[in-house]
Structures are given as C-alpha cells and as structure tokens.
Amino acid sequence: AELRKKEERDAAEALKREEELREAKRQQQRLNFLLSQTELYSHFMQNKSAPQTSESLPTTEGDTTAEGVPSSLVDLKSDEEEDPEETALKREALKAAQHAASEQKKLTSAFDSECMKLREGVDIEVMAAEASIEGSSNIDLLHP
C-alpha cells in the first residue's frame, strides 16, 4: 500500500512538473509574440514618421514569399527555431491585418469620393442661392 501511494505521489509530481514546463513554454511563446508585435509596430511607426503618401507605403504585391508574406517581415524572426503552429498563426494574423487595412482604404476612398460629390453639389446649390438672393436685393423685408 505504501509503495502504491509513493508511486501515485511520484506520478502526480511528474504531472505537475510537466504542466509547469508547458506553462513556462506557453509564457515564453506569448512573450516572443508580444516582442515581435512590438518590433512590427515600431517598424511600422518608423515608416510612418517619414513623409509618405498612402500610395508609397509597401504592399504585398511586390517582394513576397510563397505564403504571401512580405519578405521584409520574414527577416524579423528571432534566431531560435519557432513553433510551426505559431509561425502559421503569425502569417494568418499578418494576412488578416493586411486585408483589414486594404478594406479600410477602400472604405476611406469611397467615403472621400462621396464627400467630394456632396461638396460639389452643395457648391452648385450655394451658387444658385446666391444668384436668387442677388435678384431679390430690392425687397423690403419690413414691409413685404
């Protein structure tokens, strides 16, 4: 009975150590992910600080890897081997971010063009209103 209890305790301790190692590995992966995101953000902000238009920003149409990831971002990986699952998640996140950015650009340009049309329409109405006001300048507003 004592031998069985000792084996159970040893198994429980081994399970606990294994869980702690898994948790430590997960925490390290989270830290690596946050660091890589910080590096990506600082790289992005560094490019933003230079006077550039939205057309001159780098896109994925040019120099990309087989997965569609810009080769400039592939260089940001650390020296140590990364988990393939984590790498795939990063690629998916990058693709999703690029898609969201392109969709937002489309929405912004559509909004800008609609505003421009409305402004042109308002300018025409203002001119017509001014013309009608000029013709009615001889009206006596106190005694219509």
From TrEMBL:
One GO MF term attached to the UniProt entry: DNA binding
Region named Disordered: 1-27, 48-88
Entries under InterPro entries matching the protein: DBINO
Compositional bias ranges of the Polar residues kind: 48-63
Biased composition (Basic and acidic residues): 1-26
Record-linked Pfam families: DBINO
Residue span(s) of domain DBINO: 1-51
Annotated protein name in UniProt: DBINO domain-containing protein
Natural source organism: Nymphaea colorata (pocket water lily)
